[in-house]
Amino acid sequence: MMVRPDLREVAAASQDLEAVEPPGGAVLVDRRGRPHRWLHPVAWWAWGIGVSVAAARTTNPLLLLLLGVAVVHVAVVRRRPGPAGRSVRMFVQLGLFVIAVRMVLTVVFSAPGAGRTVFSLPQPPLPPWLSGLGLGGAVTADQLLGAFYGGCRLAVVLVCFGAVNTVSSGYRLVRSLPAALHEAGVAVGVAVTLAPELVSEVARVRAARRLRGRAGGLRGVRGTVLPVLGAALERSVDMAASMDVRGYGRRAGTTRSQRFVDGLLLGAVAVLLMSGLYGRLSPGAPGLMGLPALAGGGVLLGVVLWRGSRRSTRTVYGRDPWALPEWAVAGSGVLCAALVSVSSDLVLHPLVAPFAWPTLTVGTALAVCCALVPGVVAPLPPGSPA
Amino acid sequence: MTPVVELRDVTFRYTPEGPAVLDGVDLSIDEGTLCLVVGPTGGGKSTLLGAVPGLVPRFTGGHLAGTVTVGGRSTAEFPPRELADVVGTVGQDPLAGFVTDTVADEVVFVMENLGTPVDVMRRRLEDTLDLMGLAEVRDRPLRALSGGQQQRVAIAAVLAAGPKVLVLDEPTSALDPAAADEVLSAITRLVHDVGLTVVMAEHRLERVVQFADTVVVVPGDGTVRSGPPRDLLVAPAPRPPVMLLGELAGWDPVPLTVREARRDRASLRECLAGVPGPELTDLSERPVVASAAGVAARYGPVVALEGVDLELRQGEVTALMGRNGSGKSTLLSLLAGMRPPRSGRVEVLGADPVRLSPDQLVRSVGLVPQDPAMLLFCERVDDECAAADQDAGAAPGTTAALLASMVGDVDPELHPRDLSEGQRLALAVAVVMAAGPAVLCLDEPTRGLDHDAKTALVADLRRLAAAGTSVVLASHDVELVAEVADRVVLLANGRVVEDGPARRVVCQTPVFAPQVARILGDDRWLTVEEVAGAFARGAAGAREAGE
Fold first, then answer.
1. Closest CA to B84 of B56, B115, B130, B58
2. Average model confidence (pLDDT) for chain A?
3. Do B38 and B237 meet the contact criterion of CB atoms below 8 Å apart?
4. Sequence ranges of the domains in chain A
5. A214, A239, A314 member nearest B358 (Cβ)
6. Over the stretch A80-110, which tens digit does the pLDDT of each residue have?
7. Are the beta carbons of A25 and B53 separated by less than 8 Å?
């Protein structure tokens, strides 16, 4: 009679397992009964860009820290399953690295500031042609603080980008592009996913060098670069072949003359946009090169997209819907940027000389709350544990 | 039956003056058949496969004369992307071809490109997922799947277009035996139930011969022959052990499957009943040269190894077996000092390999990675050999002599990339062995090796072991393990499940048993060679008894 409790234990254990591993690709619901689904990628990007705009407008370290924590929190609770769902961690590390680099550069190369001197570095004599460069010397508190604040700003912008990548895949964004841009988008998307693999390729080649009994060093660089480039080239040809045999880039039904006209129009768009930008940015350019050229380029671009979309034979399976959660997520990003933008300069850029403690106002505190909204309103992605 | 793939007078050269890889080839493949393409590496197998969807010459360069038609469309007129609805092609490494992140997106990709209406797409996605047994993992990220699942997704991703022909280049070469069975049974189901035509290249004949309707032999001289398996797979063509055993025993017709062979086995078993098994040397008393004690390793939150103990003895060949992802490669990288264990101790010749300087390391342990080309970075074979001599501090010519002893003369001016797979592996082994390490680790050495290269590898490994090197190899290839290993260590989920003499371990589970053992049901006989040896001895015994 020892068998029964064992069986019950087994049954209980298997129920536990089911809780972790959903059966049969079933659609699950979260605690409040909403089905797991992908949030529209444009909503995630609107949120991410909104929060990074807010971060870019301030050097208040307190506000930046809170924004960063909010963004990481959202990324962690709404991350996609699998290895891609861990990428925010990499971006946090990158952000810390950026802060460190920025501070080190400030310490080594900068003109002396106005505040109290914290420590001094030896000043090596420089040749006269390098006289514009300040190397070493006194390092002041305001310089250090300024560098730290600026580094924080950049770090939070990076973390926002990492968070969006953690919750939403680049491929889903590409899918929601207009048909005419789709092919270029897929190419960019694939290139972006291949870049991190190049890094792991470098690690593999370096490991192989150790297997050959060679240490690093300058001679090692050539031995590393060539195999890595070779492998990358092979990989991209494989990828191109795999996409081609699956019908990517089909031109069924388009004639040669249509493609020629497309090419001509695209060239014209590029010329108009470039000359428009040049006209806007350089003061001496003729007036016609400015806004009129920019507007003309914009209109022509619309025509090219419309022509392409009208002719495209592609279909898109299951476009992500745009519903209430999408409005809430995108809106929270926009609101976050807006709340920070209207705050007073004194809050956004706390003084470093003389030093003033960074503070929060009601507006900026609300902005942080806005950044947190997707962590509650966004649905969980499919495939995440129940 | 009507042919769905037709090659008419096809000649292919990489350069106008170069040798013809395919020379005036005529071939037609009937609808609804499974066609197995066999032949040595570099013999034109991949060229033949690539010519069907038009990837050759559009992606490889070179010049193709003659006509190739698939489903009535000529590849000269239609580029591969316009043929996507007639022919689906899957490369060797499924991961290298994935465009999207999740299973469902990947399967839908081809249909979106073809402009399939959304309601049709929805139905076909479900059908394809069911057909390939992927419904359970539809929302899973591609990179989190097992090797067998990834291969099935890659097939589903071309199948969704509803092609008439499926072209597969070594679909099971990277898979463990169970995952390979899973993929092959899915493929045969497509041939039987859907009426698909499958053109497949595969070196591991023992896995696939039983499913083939037609065999196409590409011997490497530019010619191509096709016909039923029993007609074409005769000496000197490579054959799986089941056919070799059938020939040895004189069965007619020669069996293609283990099941067929079992029907005839009674007489052979009677013959072998009184004969003692092959002599085994006891290696358990040999000195231990490398050991792992309680080692653990992790990749992020994933446990790769947990509490693994292993001892490698001088002159012993140890095979690490287990599913994809069971920790075999990680264990090899720990032994070779590529990374420190998370806990536990690794020792090679009494030292921790991670702490050794690179030049000390190569003298105690060498590792040939899964892709042997990773080890090679010179532009010429002779430069590579000279560099290896210098790195190892060996006398000039050591590596070249080792290479010659394995594969004979190799053109010293060739780029290592232009060698055949077997030659490249031999070069990598020679480069590693130049330093005279006590332990040689090989990770999946037979991936992509043809039959002859594998036979050569077996001989080389046996010779190295006889000279006192401790050889440890991670492999899915049960026939290779049966031929070369003294000891088998079975890993599962990062733990050692079984560690013992090869004979005992491989015969305990049907998945890992070599064909001969499965036919005879007797763990004394693992390879055809052993049975042949027993015959010879048996005959001698009978003669003595007669006298």
1. B115
2. 80
3. yes
4. 41-312+322-377
5. A214
6. 887 777 778 888 999 999 999 999 988 887 7
7. no
